[in-house]
Amino acid sequence: MCSPGRAPPGPAPVGDLPPEWETDDERMAFLFSAFKQSREVNSTEWDSKMAFWVGLVLARGRRRGVVRTCLRELQNGFERRGSVPLGLGTVLRELLRRGKMQRESDFMASVDSSWISWGVGVFILKPLKWTLSSVLGDSKVPEEEEVLIYVEQLQEKAEEVYRLYQNSVLSSHPVVALSELRSLCASVCPDERTFYLLLLQLQKEKKVTILEQNGEKIVKFARGLHAKVSPMNDVDIGVYQLMQSEQLLSQKVESLSQEAEKCKDDARIACRAGKKQLALRCLKSKRRTERRIKELHSKLDAVQGILDRIYASQTDQMVFNAYQAGVGALKLSMKDVTVERAENLVDQIQELCDTQDEVAQTLAGAGVNGLEMDSEELEKELDSLLQDSAKDPVHLHPVPQKEPDSGFAGAISDAELEAELEKLDVCDRDLARKKSSASSEPQTALGLNL
């Protein structure tokens, strides 16, 4: 029996199933029955049953967090009161046709053969099965033990593996050991087979490449979320070897430090027991170990210095590439720009500005309705008008002034009010006569006869 998932095959929990699973026997009997050979017989029932099982199969895989399954596991998972769905094979064939699932053998065949050569020892490749699958296509109902892959979940988990690497200390260099990567992704990959499938997906997306070096498989990741991985070169291998040397030296130094501390404790115990010679031997051993630690520290410093220079050179290379790209872009943007053309352009702008100023001055000096007016004549006429108005002042009846009394004068009589009103009427008549006499004379304004 296939074992594609983490959990053993078995009936699905009641909470993961639709409500009618336990309550509607008639409905479930219809859903558990086999599909008609032709959809045209009753397309409505066929589509209804297919939609039910397609959603349930995909939801089961996503809920369990697995990328692999098979027909037998699904039959066991959807067992109900001793019976299994008879149409699951047709459902899986439909999922294969839609691209929601893929045969594991077809998936491996879709990856470049040079990329999966490292995985031959893990996968049991069947070239004959691949050939038959490529000839028959997805029209063939999958076998009970044939492993199928949830395509979307495989892509999502592969992206999760890539994010785990990017957020880990291993991302300091693009090349890592396969064993270290496997330990890092233990929470995402339930088994080794799933781990290799995820790596194959990353290889298919050109995000990683794998090489075997001295019997050990190493993985190179692409730098950047949307970048493509470059082929592994001698520099990558050399840096990886330096990193491995640094790790081994660090482990050796730690081990020798513990050994030196143990020799010191042994010498102290021997002294307390009165074993002087044994204590001297322990001290000599401690000093030899400390000399080895000092030598290893020197070597470790040298390796770390080389690695630091390599990382600095990689940064310098990145900056150099950025400068080079900037120079290229600047050359393209300044391709048609020269000093002579810039000066010519500035001269043209200045000429246009001068022309615009002249036009504005010409328009400002134009007369209204084609008549030009002399400003001096206008000023003289304005002065004459002012002099005429000064010669003929308007006479108004003076307001009577009364000295304020020290006390309250009392109310004004009616006779006094009538006398004041008569005086005002006389002033108004004189003013009206002056206005009528003035309007009867010809008027001249601003040199124009009106």
Automatic annotation (TrEMBL):
UniProt entry tagged with the keyword Protein transport: yes
GO biological process, one term: plasma membrane repair
Keywords (A to Z) from UniProt: Coiled coil, Cytoplasm, Nucleus, Protein transport, Transport
GO CC entries: amphisome membrane; chromatin; cytoplasmic side of plasma membrane; cytosol; ESCRT III complex; kinetochore; kinetochore microtubule; lysosomal membrane
Compositional bias (Basic and acidic residues): 393-405
One Pfam short name: WHD_CHMP7_1st
Keyword Coiled coil: yes
Region named Disordered: 393-414, 431-450
Family: Belongs to the SNF7 family.
Protein name according to UniProt: Charged multivesicular body protein 7
Gene: CHMP7
